[in-house]
Design brief:
single chain; 285 residues; alpha/beta; 8-stranded parallel barrel; two-stranded antiparallel sheet; 9 helices; globular
Length: 285
């Protein structure tokens, strides 16, 4: 009998883009990654280093040689496409458009962003604003998928429910380029019981958004209990999600083919230990 092939476990962490793409790739390889995430620019501001075309080409060659999976480019936290002030919405629009154009030079990458905070305007007013920005940045064309991230629901965050994310997608013209990044800490803090009822949550996601739109997982434990709306990430197995719960997530038949990106409170060597631990917990497909 032919032995069943083991499905690739795409697992990696968040790396600093300060030294360029090739440096991130080599650091990721050292830590045991075969995917990784990075910020497109300063995560607390708007500055970005000049694009090094030679570095991009060298990374693309490295990516092919090493067989890395899809990278995840994360927009800065300062981007708020549904801000109350028009100038802040325009800032988000222009920077995200610039980021997406730069990402087109990478051969295998997705662009992820937090939908934003409505700042007392209400989600009903904010959702069309977010969709308008997405439609604008996609209008330039290209291949890079855009992912909306599931949010924990702290403050006035949009994207705290599957329904809000679906409402944004419904207003996007190029729906074929839209996907979702599910953050395990965020959805748990947001009130979705992915530990006690993972199958039920995935069914709800499928009913509302469609599992075909789920493209990436931010794999994080949580410092707080379900429904806390706190968004406090914890190291793997040291929080409310538990090691058993996270083991179930990485092995679930509806999730195991996806890339997993760690955003736990770690330095490099801590990430290396978590990646090794998760690989040991991964079961053959």
């Amino acid at each position: 009998m032919e032995k069943k092939k083991t499905e690739t476990f795409w697992i990696g962490c968040h790396l600093s883009s300060a030294k360029g793409y090739l440096a991130m790739g080599k650091e990721g390889e050292r830590l045991g990654c075969n995917v990784f995430q990075f910020f497109t620019r300063n995560p607390r501001g708007g500055s970005v280093k000049p694009l090094d075309l030679e570095d991009v080409a060298q990374y693309n060659a490295f990516h092919r040689e090493k067989g890395f999976g899809t990278l995840l480019a994360h927009a800065p936290y300062t981007m708020n496409p549904c801000a109350a002030k028009p100038e802040l919405r325009e800032f988000a629009r222009s920077k995200m458009k610039e980021d997406l154009a730069r990402l087109e030079l990478l051969e295998d990458v997705m662009f992820n962003f937090h939908p934003g905070s409505h700042v007392q305007q209400g989600a009903e007013a904010a959702i069309p604003m977010i969709a308008d920005v997405v439609n604008d940045i996609l209008s330039a064309g290209g291949k890079t998928p855009i992912l909306l991230e599931t949010m924990a629901g702290k403050g006035s965050e949009v994207g705290r429910s599957f329904e809000e994310l679906r409402a944004i997608i419904d207003r996007v013209e190029q729906k074929e380029r839209m996907g979702i990044c599910l953050d395990t800490c965020h959805v748990y803090d947001g009130g979705y019981d992915i530990i006690g009822n993972l199958e039920g949550v995935l069914q709800e996601f499928d009913d509302i958004i469609g599992l075909d739109r789920l493209k990436a997982i931010h794999l994080n434990d949580s410092k707080n209990p379900m429904g806390s709306h706190k968004d406090r990430h914890e190291k793997i197995g040291e929080g409310a999600l538990t090691l058993a719960g996270i083991t179930a997530i990485i092995n679930h038949p509806k999730l195991r083919h996806l890339p997993f990106y760690l955003e736990t409170p770690n330095e490099a060597e801590g990430y290396a230990k978590e990646i090794a631990l998760l690989r040991s917990l991964r079961k053959d497909g």
